[in-house]
Amino acid sequence: MIKNDIALAIEKKTEYNRARSLSIVEGVLEALKSALTNKEKVEIRGFGSFKVVPKKTGFGRDIRRQKQIRIEKGQRIKFRPGQELKTLLSKAKPS
Questions:
Q1: Could you tell me which residues are beta bridge partners of residue 60?
Q2: pLDDT at 20 over 80
Q3: Which of 30, 43, 50, 78 has the most CB atoms less than 10 A away?
Q4: What interhelical angle do 3-13 and 18-37 show, nearest 10?
Q5: Does 95 score more than 80 pLDDT?
Q6: Cα separation of 19 and 10, whole Å?
Q7: CA–CA gap between residue 6 and residue 81 (Å, rounded)
Q8: pLDDT band, very low/low/confident/very high, at 84 (cuts 50, 70, 90)
């Protein structure tokens, strides 16, 4: 699913046109980006939560060159699904 698919879903469920639906999606994504950039936890009840966590310096493996590479410390986003989403996923049929 891409951003336009989400806008289309909003368009179908509401009386908004495509442009307004797309602007709503972009507004939500900008709010998420802004909050995560400021290292705030974002929680959407029933869906899940996002938070920024530190990533330690470590080593990985370059598969093509068969060499060990250094992975610099930094940050990553961690997603934890909410209980309602977990329940829906557990009831979903495997594809």
A1: 69
A2: yes
A3: 50
A4: 120
A5: no
A6: 11
A7: 19
A8: very high
Q: Which residue has the tokens 């709503």?
A: 24
Query: Per the structure block, which two tokens stand in for 90?
Result: 């557990």
Distance CA 49, CA 78 (A): 8
Strands (E), the chain: 42-44, 48-55, 58-62, 67-71, 74-81
- With vertex at residue 28, the alpha carbon angle to CA 22 and CA 31, rounded to the nearest 5 degrees, is 140
State pLDDT tens for residues 3-14. 999 999 999 999
**41-95 in CATH: which number?**
4.10.520.10
Quote the distance between the C-alpha of residue 3 and its chain's center. Answer: 12
Residue 59: count other Cβ atoms within 10 Å of its Cβ. 8
Give the amino acid at 84.
E
